[in-house]
Design goal:
The protein is an alpha/beta fold. It has 2 domains: 8-221, P-loop containing nucleotide triphosphate hydrolases (Rossmann fold, 3-Layer(aba) Sandwich); 227-298, Alpha-Beta Plaits. The protein has helices spanning 48-55, 76-80, 97-105, 114-121, 136-148, 166-181, 193-199, 217-222, 237-241, 263-273, 287-298; strands at 8-19, 22-33, 37-41, 63-68, 82-85, 154-158, 185-189, 202-207, 210-215, 227-232, 246-252, 255-260, 278-284. A 6-stranded mixed β-sheet has the order 5-6-7-3-8-9, with helices on both faces. It has a 4-stranded antiparallel β-sheet with strand order 11-12-10-13. β6 (154-158), α6 and β7 form a beta-alpha-beta unit. α4 (114-121) packs across α5. Bound molecules: adenosine-5'-triphosphate (ATP). Adenosine-5'-triphosphate (ATP) binds at residues 19, 22, 24, 42, 44-50. Pfam families: ABC_tran (PF00005). This is ABC-2 type transport system ATP-binding protein. InterPro entries: AAA+_ATPase, ABC_transporter-like_ATP-bd, ABC_transporter-like_CS, ABC_transporter_ATP-binding, P-loop_NTPase. It comes from Dokdonella fugitiva. Residues 10-233 form the ABC transporter domain.
Length: 299
C-alpha cells in the first residue's frame, strides 16, 4: 500500500467527537510520519483513547476525518498495515501463547516468525502457557507480541507498559525503539512521562479534547520557564514559600526543593539569608513539570 501523499502514516484532520453531552475531541489536527514515535499525553479523560479508536475506524468521528497511510481507516488494507495494543485486549483465556501468535500471524501476508515475536516481546518460556494463566504483566507482553507480529508500518500502543516491572518495561522500550528505527510510525499513550521523554520524537498534549502542546520533548519542556532549586539549608520552608517568586517548596530532611520561574532571584535570596547553604543545584523543568503546567493552564 502506498504512503499518503503528505507522507503521514496516520493523520487526524479537524476531528471532533462527542459522547452525549461530553466533548471527547474538540477538533484535533495531528499527524505522525514513518520512523517517528509520537507520545500522546494527557490527563485521564483527555481524549487519547478516543483519538486512537477513530484512527482505527473503531469509532466514527462526528466531524473531520482520520487517515491511515492516506486511506480511510475502514479499508481493510489500511488496517492491515497497523499493529494495535489497546488498554483491554479480550483475548481467549484457553489458548496457548503460541496458538494466539500463530492465529494472529495467519491474518497477515508477511508476518514475523513466532520466535522473532517472542524474542522482541520477551516471551521465551511462555509460548506453551495458556493466556488466561499468565500474570497481568505477562499478558501485556503477549498483547505487544500480537501487535507487532504482522510487521506493521504503523503501531498504536495505548498505555503499553502499565503493570510491567522494570525489566519488562526496559525490554519493551528496546523493542519499540527497534520498530521505530526500522521505519515504523508509532503512536503511544502513556501516563509515565519519563517514558515519553525516553522514547518520543514528538509529544502531543491533549487536554479536554484539544491539543494544547505539540513538538519535540525539548520544545514542550521549553514552553515553561520553571526551574527546580535543591539545596541543603536551615531556612524555614514556610518562610521561603512566602517569597513572591516561589511557586512551591518542600523540605525533605535537611534538603529543601523549590519550584520557581525566577531561579536567579531565588538563588540570590537563599544565599543572602543562609550563608551555610550547600549542595545547590538548579534544574530546568522536566517534561513532567511542563505537563503539569500546560494541563493546569488548559484547565
Ligand atoms: N463510550 C463512552 N460513552 C460516554 N463517554 C465516554 C465514552 N468513552 C469515553 N467517554 C468520555 O470521553 C472522554 C474522553 O475519554 P477517553 O477514554 O478518550 O480519554 P483518555 O484520554 O483515553 O483517558 P484515560 O487516560 O483515562 O485512558 C472522557 O470524558 C470519557 O469519560
Amino acid at each position: 500500500m502506498q504512503q499518503a501523499e503528505s507522507g503521514a502514516a496516520v493523520e487526524w484532520r479537524g476531528v471532533r467527537k462527542r459522547y452525549g453531552g461530553t466533548v471527547a475531541l474538540d477538533g484535533i489536527d495531528l499527524e505522525v510520519r514513518r520512523g517517528e514515535l509520537l507520545a500522546l499525553l494527557g490527563p485521564n479523560g483527555a481524549g487519547k483513547s478516543t483519538a486512537i479508536a477513530i484512527a482505527l475506524g473503531l469509532l466514527p468521528a462526528d466531524a473531520g476525518e482520520a487517515r491511515l497511510c492516506g486511506r480511510p481507516p475502514a479499508e481493510l488494507d489500511a488496517r492491515r498495515a497497523c499493529g494495535v495494543m489497546l488498554q483491554s485486549a479480550g483475548l481467549p483465556d484457553s489458548l496457548k501463547v503460541r496458538e494466539l501468535l500463530e492465529l494472529t500471524c495467519s491474518y497477515y501476508a508477511a508476518p514475523r516468525t513466532i520466535a522473532g515475536c517472542a524474542g522482541l516481546a520477551g516471551l521465551d518460556g511462555l509460548l506453551d502457557r495458556r493466556y488466561g494463566r499468565l500474570s497481568g504483566g505477562e499478558q501485556r507482553r503477549v498483547q505487544f507480541a500480537l501487535a507487532i507480529c504482522g510487521n506493521p508500518r504503523l503501531l498504536f500502543l495505548d498505555e503499553p507498559t502499565t503493570g510491567l516491572d522494570l525489566d519488562a518495561r526496559g525490554l519493551l522500550w528496546r523493542a519499540i525503539r527497534a520498530m521505530v528505527e526500522a521505519g515504523c510510525a508509532v503512536v503511544m499513550t502513556t501516563h509515565y512521562l519519563e517514558e515519553a521523554e525516553a522514547l518520543a520524537d514528538r509529544v502531543a498534549v491533549l487536554a479536554r479534547g484539544r491539543i494544547v502542546a505539540c513538538g519535540s520533548v525539548q520544545q514542550v519542556r521549553a514552553r515553561v520557564s520553571q526551574r527546580r532549586i535543591r539545596c541543603v539549608s536551615v531556612l524555614d520552608a514556610a518562610r521561603v514559600g512566602a517569597w513572591p517568586e516561589v511557586r512551591s517548596v518542600c523540605r525533605d530532611g535537611d534538603r529543601i526543593e523549590i519550584v520557581t520561574d525566577q531561579a536567579e532571584v531565588v538563588v540570590r535570596q537563599l544565599l543572602f539569608e543562609d550563608s551555610g547553604l550547600s549542595q545547590l543545584e538548579v534544574q530546568r523543568a522536566g517534561l513532567a513539570d511542563a505537563f503539569v503546567e500546560i494541563t493546569r493552564e488548559a484547565a
